[in-house]
Design goal:
Blueprint lengths: L22 H8 L5 E5 L2 H12 L6 H19 L4 H5 L2 H6 L9 H9 L7 E5 H6 L1 H11 L14
Parallel strand pairs: 1-2
Length: 158
């Protein structure tokens, strides 16, 4: 949902502050009736997990806090001149940040997908809700995908 860095390499897009075309535009051209499921994690939990996974040596809460602070300062400086969307898609900025802050700015990505696909083609779930109640979550998925029977998911089948 968020990995749209290739837009800047496409002919004619390199001078734009914001991407005029993203992967969802190409998907829509090929599969206009497609349905999508996005499971979003708490952005802070996602950022810390991302830090632990991609971070270098000396991982600590203090180091994480320092890297987040530095990233927030860079992001804030960008917001002084450009829109939120432009900063989220700014690969130079994102590469300069010590943590991948931009990945958790879900609102930009969801709105971009909804600018191409209708709301009934995108199901957004929270990871925490799915973990807490898989049966309800999976029944929502089955209904969304219009699977026969409307989805009678049983937790014991996992």
């Amino acid at each position: 949902m968020w990995d749209n860095n290739a837009w800047s390499y496409l002919y004619g897009n390199t001078s734009e502050a914001e991407p005029p075309f993203l992967i969802q535009d190409f998907i829509h051209a090929l599969q206009p009736e497609a349905r999508f499921i996005a499971i979003l994690r708490d952005p802070v939990e996602r950022l810390y997990s991302d830090y632990l996974y991609f971070g270098m040596a000396n991982k600590s809460v203090e180091d994480f806090q320092e890297k987040v602070w530095e990233s927030l300062q860079l992001f804030d400086a960008c917001l002084q001149e450009f829109s939120l969307r432009a900063c989220v898609y700014n690969s130079t900025l994102n590469n300069a940040m010590p943590v991948r802050l931009h990945v958790g700015v879900y609102v930009v990505y969801v709105l971009d997908w909804l600018s191409v696909f209708s709301a009934d083609q995108l199901l957004v779930l929270r990871l925490e809700d799915h973990a807490a109640d898989k049966k309800t979550s999976m029944n929502r998925v089955f209904r969304f995908l219009q699977l026969e029977g409307g989805g009678d998911y049983r937790a014991s089948s996992v």
